Amino acid sequence: MSFRYDPRHRPPQPQAPPADAFAVERAVVAEGVSLAFVHEGVGGIPLLLIHGYSETKRIWWRNVEALSAAGFEVIVPDLRGVGDSDIPPDDRHDLVIYSRDLHALVHDRLGHATCLIAASDVGGFVATDMIHRFPGFVEGFCVFNTVPPMGVDYSGIDSQHAPTLSDVADPTGDYRWMQGAFPDELAAMLSTPEARRQWVANMYTFGQADVDFMTEPFADEERLRAGWAAHQLAYGRRMTEIPMMDAVDVPTLVLYGPEDHVLISGEPFDAALHSSRRQQGRVVGGVIGGLMVELLSLGGTDREGGNPRRGIVGIQNVSLSVAALDDTYRRVVEAGYQPDQAPFEIGGVRMFFVKDPDGTPVEFIELPGGVRSTYEMHRGETIAALE
Question: Which of 235, 251, 277 is the last residue of a domain?
Answer without folding.
Answer: 235
